[in-house]
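Annex B. Sample input.
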Amino acid sequence: MAKMTTQKLKEMKDQGIKISMTTAYDYPTAYLVDKAGIEIILVGDSLMMAVLGDDSTVACTMEQMIHHIKPVVLGAPNPLIVGDMPFGSYNVSKEQAIVNATRLMKEGRCDVIKLEGGKEVADTVKAIVDAGIPVMGHIGLTPQTVSKLGGFKVQGKGEEAARGVLEDALALQEAGAWGIVLECVPEMLAKLITEKLEIPTIGIGGGRYCDGQVLVFHDMMGLFEKFTPKFVKQYRNLADEMVSALSTFKEEIRTGAFPEEKHVFGGVGEEELKRLY
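Annex B, continued. Sample output.
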């Protein structure tokens, strides 16, 4: 698999080839995702909930994002690496947004950045793109501003709300975004947006007609047990398998079944040991 680029992803959309995307926050996960041939890795602020135990993404900092992007880049040379702009890192001014997007690219070494919002951030997206940094948009349910949206619920229901999401998508494309995440929107609205846009759409709770799909790694592998959104398909239950392995490890220590002879080292004979006493 050669290095993925935004241009190749656009070609996949044009050819009707579905795009796969998941998250990673560390080297070993990124290595496995790359080995599986996934096209895009998102190092998302979802790390706050998936691996750091927080109940929201809002508290994520630039330092945390950079810290987690670095090992993912090292572990996955082939997928496109997307670095999330955390809440508050692009909301004050265009200048602030450019400075922080540049930090993710220079210090984290990701390929592109992602930020949340529609029409209200279009000017910021354009400024970042004009500064030479590729931007992925994120509309519909935007977790960073979930309080303003009234909670984790489907966005774009009804004609007026649907028109708003469509206008958000068109505004981001016009601003120069190379792709857009559509989160928790009605399936047929996502289909319409996908048909109207020239850039790829990646759905997470956006239905079957997006150009690609993304799931959080820990959700799809059964490693996040606090709650499971409707749109998640759990491909494995690794939590149960890992608990079982750890329980076996504990039991074998207690019974003496581990370590076995093949796990230990020699190098000191009996006569040598006697002299040590």
